[in-house]
Amino acid sequence: MGRGTTFGAVGACALMLVGCGGSGGNEPVAAPSSSSTSSSAAPRPVISPSVLDAGAYPTSPRPPLGVAGNPATGAVADAQHMADFVIGPWEVDEKLVGTYLNSYYVLNSADSLQQLGPEGIATAAGQAGMVNGFASARQIPADAADQEAGREAMVNAVLRFPDPATAVAASTAMGEAAAKQPVKGVTPTVVTIPGHPGAVASTYPFTPSGAAQPRATVRSFTPHGPYVFMHFVQSVDGVDRATGLVAKAVDAQGPAIDEFVPAGDLAAVPLDPTGLLAKTLPAGVAEAAKNAVYATRGAEHFQTNPVASATLFSDTGTTQVAMGSTNVYQTKDDGAAVMITNAFSQEMTSDGMATADTVTALPDSHCYALTQAFYCVAPAGRYAIEARSGQLADVHQQLSAQYVMLTAK
């Protein structure tokens, strides 16, 4: 999940999975010294649109985006909003920062759960009327002392149901479905989650392909109000360690989701409550996580190293991240936007990415050649922009159009 892998998640930081904020080795990247990018620095002069080539991309914000208009669109938008209240595995154990599975999932229906477990789990959720949800997945990455990644892995998902009674019934049905599904000929056995008697959980041993040690695997389903907390945890340190991680995740997730206000009418879910998405180049692909604005916790799910990114966001006063065709980070001031730009650029350099021609008219821009694409980052007033494309000329045009859209009066 490096900055240059998937555009929009770490996505060339954020574009590419989305977000930077950490080196390829998952070590935090030092932010530029605040002495040169302090919030007291004078605002940078705005570059004239006349010297920028935006190609056919729009350079003016869209009109207000309004509401979803239908339940299907609203279910996606509401799940995107939920991401801001779903804890990441790194909040349970800070070593859980490595890419695992797809790393994040916007769950707009019960069918989408088939990405995360046996079909029986998705069927049970669908029969209970699952509305939507969001999941975050990470593992302990390989390092110099232990070249084998995945000594521990966690998927933390929050699934919304119509009401608390339905959530209780759904957790039981989903847990029973998981326990009935043999894995490599082994039928799971029921286990308890410490401190959470309402959780329905089971375990089985599993050795990933190429791994030297077996993992104790636990699937758990815990009702909490109208939600079910679904966990998948693997650990080389045994069942007790795995169930302990589930318990810590449940303890942390409860207070976080209690702050979320789910939509009563999905058709009325606002698509752009902050107004930032209308000022971001829209994505034209069917990617459920895109065309959305996230607060910092939500944005962390898409970062290369969410722990380092959390620190960077705090240091720069970043409050919102819009993910569209480009990614836009809203910071506290011009100097903070430069800090974001420099940190993301440093991550690319640390990952060994070759530099590419920058946008000449944007002196603070940085561009890099990825394996099959190009990535650029630049500040635009209080915003930092990421853009990615298979063609360098195209990524230059995206960056230029986004710059004009954010700075033109």
UniProtKB/TrEMBL annotation:
InterPro entries referenced in this protein's UniProt entry, alphabetically: DUF7373, DUF7373_C
Annotated region (Disordered), positions in chain: 52-71
Top-level taxon: Bacteria
One Pfam family recorded for the sequence: DUF7373
Signal peptide region: none
UniProt cross-references to PROSITE patterns, sorted A to Z: PROKAR_LIPOPROTEIN (PS51257)
Residue ranges of domain DUF7373 in the record: 66-263, 276-407
Protein name stated in the entry: Lipoprotein
